[in-house]
Structure formats: C-alpha cells, structure tokens
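Reviewer 2 asked us to include a model.

Predict the structure of this chain.
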Amino acid sequence: MKKLRKFQAATYSVITLAFLYHIFANSINLNPFYADSAFFWCVVISVYLLVWSFFRLGGSLRGLLSADEAGRIQVNLQGFSFGMIPRLVKILLAAPWVLFVVAMIFSTVLFNWKAYRDQLGDPQVQSFSSDMQVLDISQVPIVDKALASKLADKKLGERPSLGSQVVLGEPTIQRVDGKLVWAVPLHHSGFFKWLTNLSGTPGYVVVSATNMNDVEYVDSHLIKYQPNSYLLHDLTRYTRFTSALFTGITDYSFELDDSGVPHWIVTTYKNLRGFALPEADGVIIVNATTGETKKYTLDNVPEWVDRVQPEDFIISQIRNKGEYVHGFLNFSDKDKYRPSQGEAIIYNNGRCYLFTGLTSVGNDESAIGFMMVDMVTKEPLLYQMNGATEAAAQASAQGKVQHLGYYASFPIILNVDGTPSYFMTLKDREGLIKQYALVSVESYSIVGVGDTMEDAFQNYQSALRQSGVSSDVIQTGGEEKTSSGTVLRIKGQFDGNETVYFLILEEMQNKIFTVTSSVSDEIVLTQPGDRISVRYYEAEGQPVLSALEFDNLMFSQS
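Predicted model (structure tokens):
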C-alpha cells in the first residue's frame, strides 16, 4: 500500500509538472472565456478526473496493480474499462466538454449575425477633397516595409561585428516626434547569442519613410524583451506572467516614444460573443529595455502610441459588415461588399489609419468606396466614390513601364489638388526604387510616371489636364492667395496640347507653380531672375500649385 501511495504521488507530480510546463512554455491565457484556454481547462479537468478515478476505484483497481520480483509497481490497463468510473465522475468529465461545444456553437454567426455586422460601427461618410490632407511632396512615404528592411540590413552591415549576433525584427511604421519613420528592432540570432547577451541586443534601426538616405542605427537603448526569445525574456511569456495571466493579448507592435525609448505595444482584447468577435479594449506598454509594464484603456492611451487596433481585427470587421449587410441568408448577394485585396497604414492630419478599398462581391477591378479606420479609437471613415482598386492601379502603373520590367509597390492614397490619387513606387527586381507613379482613383488610365517625385507629380498633372480634369476646376477646400517673388528656376514641358511651365520662386522653394500660356502669354518670355506675381488656390501642405493668374512684373515696370 505504501508503494501504491508513492506511485499515486508520482503520477500527480508528473501531471502537475506537465500542467505548469504547458502554461510556461505556451504562455497560455488562463481565462476560460477564451477558446484556447477553455480547451486547455477541459483537458486538464478530464485528465485529473480520470487519474483520480483510477486511484479511487478501491477493490476494482487492486487487480490492475501488481508487483514484480524486484518490488516494482506494474499497471495492467487491460482490465480497466470506462464503465468502472462512477456516474458522478462521468458527469463531471462530460460537463466541461459539453459547455465548450455549446459555447463554440453559440459563438457562430448563425446566432450572432447582427453582432458580426455591427461590430465595426457605422462609418462616418466624409468628403475626400476636404477631409484628406494634401501632403507636401517631401512628406510622401516612399519607403515601404520591404525596402525598410533592406535599408536597415544595409545599415547593419556597416558594423560587421553585429552581423553574427543579431537579426532584424519586423519594421513598424510610426510617427516619432513629428517624423514618419520605420522602426526596426534587433533580435538575438539564436539561443547561445541570447545566453551571452542577457542584457539585450544593442538597439534598433530607424529608417525614414520619406527619405531613403535617412537611415540611423541607435545603440543607446538595449532591446532585452523580444518576441520568440527565451525564458522570461520572451515578450509574450513576460507580458503574460507579469500583466495578463487572465487577459487576452495579441498584436505586439514595436514603437518608439518621442524621446526614442523603445517599447512594445501589446493589445488587450475581450470576446463580445462567446469565443468570437474579439474586440480591443486597451494596451499593455512594455519598456523593451527595463521590462516596466503599464496598462491603459482605450480612453487614456498615450498620444505617442500610434497603433492599438490589430489590423486583422479591423479587416475581419469590415468583411463581416459587408457580408451580413442584409442578414445571414442573403443568397442574392444584394449590396454585399468586401475589402479589396490589400491594406495599408497611412497618416492623415496626424492620425494613424488603416486604409483599404471596398469592392462589390464578384467585382475585383472596381472599387465602390474606401474606408479608413483609426488605429487607436477604431473610428471608421467612409469615402464613397467609384474607381479602381489598388490591384488595378498597380497593374496600370506597371503597364506604363512594362518595357523596363518594374513592379509597383502597394499603393497609398493621396489628395493631389483635390483629386483622389494612388501613389506607388516602381521597383526593379532587386527591390530598389527606380521611378515613381501616380494613378487616378476615378480613372486608372490616367497615369503619371517620373524618375523623381517632382517629375511624377508634374507628369500626372499633365495627364489630368489632357483628360479634361483641370486642377483649376477640381481644387476645393483651398484658400485663394497671391504671391510675388523672384524666379529661381523655370522649365517648360509640352503635354500634348500645350506647353506647361513649371517654376520655383527663391522665396518659396518648397512650392512648384504651374502656368500655361492660356493663363498669360508673359510666361513664355519669363526667365530666372524675373520678378513675378501669381494668384492661385492652396490647401494646407499642397506642393504643386496651378496658377489662376500670372504677371511678369518686369514687363509691367517697362
């Protein structure tokens, strides 16, 4: 009997250690209101009840146990059957699994289609030309995630000693102290590299999103806590055991505060219907160097945090809103829509948004509108307009340079003189930017391409004029102004109908004025050094301005 107790104690010890190992190794959430945790608890309860029954069956069990000549306990399970387990234990065994299956069924869209449809909320319909910020050419993000990784890797290569110690993490676009950048953390390249550098990897790389030549390696902050690291240096495990043992966590985003201190932004979430409809309800901010953690609700997230809402949550909610617009049984697909194939993170008026096009079900080439969702508050904005999808715009831009074999990056949407326009870079097979392209959302046959940003914008505006879309007509929400100054540079370009002159003033070198001979004959004779006056419309941050009136003051003086 003493040996039986030892065997019983050893069995429970092994099960307990396995339980603790599973929690530690997989960093599982212990809250049974989440599906993976509920399944885990069902397994744990079942195993413990079965083991308990095995040891508590009294006389029926003794025949299953025997000792060999050396006195070792042997178990003969051939004589053990499920029917030997008491009825109460069977009920206790079945109950958690029944509850789990019932909860899974009642979490489906069959019983909750209204909650699926309405989770995103009703979007606020906006006017594109007045709501979407007009960006200065120098502020257009030309560096995408793939290129940011290449540039960060090149910067890392300048320090050969680091190459064998660290690898690059995932770049995250963000606004740091007013500057749009990609932040790329350095991760340990393996277990032994971690073991010999327990204080963390030496810093991160910052890549400007608007200037490929602006890449900085920052080694003043160590990255001690990382995804897929080891023991309690693993970000998920550390966050789980310090701040979220019974809380749903997801979407680990690497962000810098305005002082350059690295943090991990970990989204906390709850399920709205059983095990379904995850909804972000706050963040846990983990200092990547010290491990200091702070919890915030959505109402008091620090201003420097750009992203709280997981992208997959938002896309899923947009998809559900379009799929169940008229209920669960809409076999005719009436008014159904879905997000287009792809999404992008963009910034407008200082806020971070997820942007995606919307297409009708069954139509892959035409967009019926565009949606932007605030990445902190989840406030959705809807722009109702017909046009091309992002994929169609990419194909149109690539067709313009098909003889060169360039491919287009995923586009972002810009406000060009009030016209919704896709902007993208054209890359070679090595992933390096060779040209820039703009495509009209409303008519993707209107394409502008150039070797520089300025050339691309000028070519695009010429294409708009040739198609009958004049900047003078489409500008809305701008302010009429008159400026005078000295011509620094001037150049004419024939757009197929007339010559368009592009000029820069010494006093306003961040602006480009476009003037045609139909506005003033004097533009034809204008040279660098001439004093001129020009009247135009300007929206905030608008880089290219079309002249309404032009006067060469040198001719007026003579």
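The radius of gyration is 31 Å. DSSP finds 15 helices and 28 strands in the chain. We have added this to the supplementary material.
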